[in-house]
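Long-time lurker. I teach an intro course on protein structure, and each term I like to show students one example going from raw sequence to a predicted 3D structure in token notation. This year I'd like something fresh instead of my usual example. Would anyone be willing to generate the tokens for the chain below so I can use it in lecture? Attribution to the forum is fine with me.
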Amino acid sequence: MEHNGLFWRRFGHILRDGGGYSASKWCVRPAVKTGPKEPMERRQFMLGCAAAVAMSPLAARAGARPHYYGRARLVDAGGRPIKAAELPSERNFIFHYPFAGTPCFLLNLGKPTRPAAELKTASSDTYRWSGGVGPAHSVVAYSAICAHRMTYPTREISFISYRAERTPQNRFAHVIHCCSEHSQYDPAEGARVVAGPAPQPLAAILLDHDAATDALYAIGTLGGEMFGEFFSKYEFRLTLEHNGHAHDPVRGSCVVSELSEYCRQQVKC
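-- Reply from a regular --
Happy to contribute to a lecture. Here you go:
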């Protein structure tokens, strides 16, 4: 129909591009010329508006969805695959994913995690974390960038790590604790914030476990990614630390190291 074509000529570029427009600003029924030709049918108009809303930025904020990157096998320094059943429990391991400059924790908690956790980002987007992987459902991975001030492990020092024990500054055991401002996260519940000023959980690193070989693969993230802010804040430092390759996407494999071997000093608090 002529007026259906008019709608797409006027607004089709916004639907295609997803555009930066609020649907309420432009989803208005176009004027219908009087004359012998029929106006746009109501049903066609409503379908057009529904499609526009579904593709608008507002609709995308309904919930945090997984962000899939390249599939990368977790390997040791010699290139041998990390086996979930052989990963020592309650020790800190580190790898970099999905970029060469973004550190992550790999943890075997020694017991099954909760099967699921309902969580929320700092922007109030909800998401569901589906628990640990491996034979005992005890292996988890998270971004090692603190959600408060983006403290992260470097080769020189780490203020953030997993702590199995309580301390005077850490009233919870079995948490990831950042000593910068004492944000604490429960890795058995999707890195839910249990103490401190962090506004959201650590972003989860999605792991795929191959039951036939016991191998582990990083495949994406879930939750509040902070990579853009992280690169912006530490651009110069990361350039030096990674020889100009901090932004490079990780492909094929990730080298896993024990945190005590990766950095010279771990701050305990």
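Some talking points for your students: The helical segments are 2-17, 23-26, 42-54, 57-60, 227-241, 259-262. Residues 2-17 form the longest helix (16 residues).
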